[in-house]
Fold this protein.
Amino acid sequence: MLTKKQLDLLEFIQARVQKDGVPPSFDEMKEALDLRSKSGIHRLITALEERGFIRRLAHKARALEIVKLPENMGGAPTAGFTPKVIDGDRPDQTPPRAQSVQIQAVELPVMGKIAAGVPIEAIQHASHNVAVPGTMLSGNCHHYALEVKGDSMIDAGINDGDVVVIRETSTADDGDIVVALVEDQEATLKRLRKNGASIGLEAANPAYETRILPADQVKIQGRLVGLIRSY
């Protein structure tokens, strides 16, 4: 049985992961639960981890993975739920739910590498396919995958070598993590910031500055909806 605060935190993490593909920061969790300090969030996360509802990924910024949900959040603990971060290359540690994830998997083309750092060449043709849970995808929208190169989005839980799942779209809301095509030549994965006639491409790493560009030089190619990580 979870306390109200533990349940509130689990619901908040789940909602953010489903919306953005990455978990919220500790500051965002503290504000959402109206707590005075982050130490309270640490205690709640530890309690959820001890009860098997979430898992912390060591040495990864903001890396929380929801393993299961309680019955009062939608039936059986794991029914109908798939974590947005999918582990690979660990068959001996795969939780039971991963069996049904494989059954519902959808093959997506990996369109090459996307820079989470200094922009690199524009997205090329598909090199291979990757299997992702169908629950990670949005209706009949077109999706594709990209391999991340660089560390500029590490504070958003996106690391070098991760594979990101992208829903193809030409529009996005302020604050979304998007694939942006700059001057039709270079593609990058950044958080979108709209400012009148300008577009800011914001990193999630203090070592990188936000790029400010005229809006007509930036084309949105898709929005982040999921993340796949191998160890």
